[in-house]
Specification:
Layout lengths: L1 E4 L4 E6 L6 E2 L4 E7 L2 E6 L4 E6 L6 E2 L4 E5 L1
Antiparallel strand pairs: 1-8, 2-4, 2-7, 3-6, 4-5, 6-8
Length: 70
């Protein structure tokens, strides 16, 4: 199982993909707000979304798992 992790701390603004969706490595999966900037996080790897580990409104730290891929 692969995981997509937060590279920096921030507020989860928007989850852009749904469980069961097939991702390409360059696809945006989530929008974080950090230091008053919106940051779109890319998958970085191909896979199928298994489960979100965060929801909109959550605050994440660098290294936190955002979602799991199959």
């Amino acid at each position: 199982m692969k995981e997509i992790k937060a590279e920096r701390a921030g507020l989860v603004v928007q989850c852009l993909v749904q469980p069961g969706e097939t991702l390409s490595p360059e696809q945006d999966v989530i929008v974080l707000e950090s230091m008053k900037m919106y940051i779109q996080v890319q998958a970085g790897v191909a896979g199928v979304v298994r489960d979100w580990k965060v929801k909109e409104g959550d605050v994440v730290k660098a290294g936190d798992t955002l979602l799991e891929l199959e």
